Amino acid sequence: MKTFLADSNGYYGDFGGAFVPEILHKCVQDLQLSYLQVMESESFQREFQRLLHDYVGRPSPLYRSEYLSGKYGCRIYLKREDLNHTGAHKINNTIGQILIARALGKKRIIAETGAGQHGVATATVCALMNMECIVYMGKTDVERQISNVRKMEMLGATVRPVTSGNMTLKDATNEAIRDWCCHPADTFYIIGSTVGPHPYPDMVARLQSVISKEIRVQLLREEGRDYPDYLIACVGGGSNAAGTIYDYIDDSRVRILLAEAGGEGIDSGNSAATIQLGKIGIIHGAKTLVMQNEDGQIEEPYSISAGLDYPGIGPMHANLAVSKRATVLAVDDDEALRAALDLSRHEGIIPALESAHALGVLSKQNFKSDDVVVLTVSGRGDKDMDTYLKAYTL
Ligand SMILES: *Cc1c(COP(=O)(O)O)cnc(C)c1O
Fold it and tell me: What are the structural domains of the chain?
């Protein structure tokens, strides 16, 4: 049967694989050979489930929004990842990866971060597991996201500002890979999304798949059937979307709508709509769609949402898009801002700016009255209050 999951070499159709420097070949290969065995072991599963339940606070609720259901004429449920410890879905992944790192005998954790959300989630689990934590972050981002830097420091992590390039996420990623090359034996690189060389995209998707497993159980209880007609999620690198769709990816009854960040508009030159603007290339060790100029140099993406302005996209999502298994919609800054205010005023839920892009999809689609729609609210909006206040001048 045709599947949209990874093959054993980490390919999703034409996308994926592992393109890493020679010096990392062995440690990436070790991870490729061991990750499934570790993740399927009873000791890993017991500890992972315990921490998801008692530390993260899972299962996250599936909340039926009467307001959105009435407004869009269907049955809309919100999957509340915003209620997790640390305020987003990223903790599901970092808990899983640190347990894998521990099982492989690694002592030192490195990570890269853009807005700082993945850095905070990594620093959190390093504090929990008493492991050394070094987070690479572009200097521009350090200045923009100082409160996340302070959180990481309070949690005991070392934040290393990166001054190469534009001093943003891709530069931090390069620096993290450089560190990994210098310490391949004792260091585990915790990647924050379904990106990077194989096995990261598949490993992260599996760790986040708890989201779709819960949706199945919760929908059966609410609707008497265990699948929705539509799943909706936003895509930066793709991890909350991958977790939302994982168990339904090969189920053609379920339509998948993905929101990428249109920024100021796809044709404005200020956008992060990688799937619509990207061309095939290699970024972060994987073959995927990349925003690049004619010389193949990576172009700096723009979105009002710091979590969505990644110049690549997970290989799973590139394949879903080109094979038309998923419909990808670009949601612009102003559409996301409107959707965030709407949810705040009518449901009392202030969503993360990233999640607001998923909400922005609702007005672009026509639903039937008996359609069941599940939309993942990937995180909460506390971190975005400055941006919201400036945009709305409340
Ligand atoms: C980081 C982040 C995203 C984007 O990352 P994905 O890997 O695409 O999920 C989305 N929402 C929130 C709240 C985030 O923090």
Answer: 15-51+90-203 (3.40.50.1100), 57-88+209-391 (3.40.50.1100)
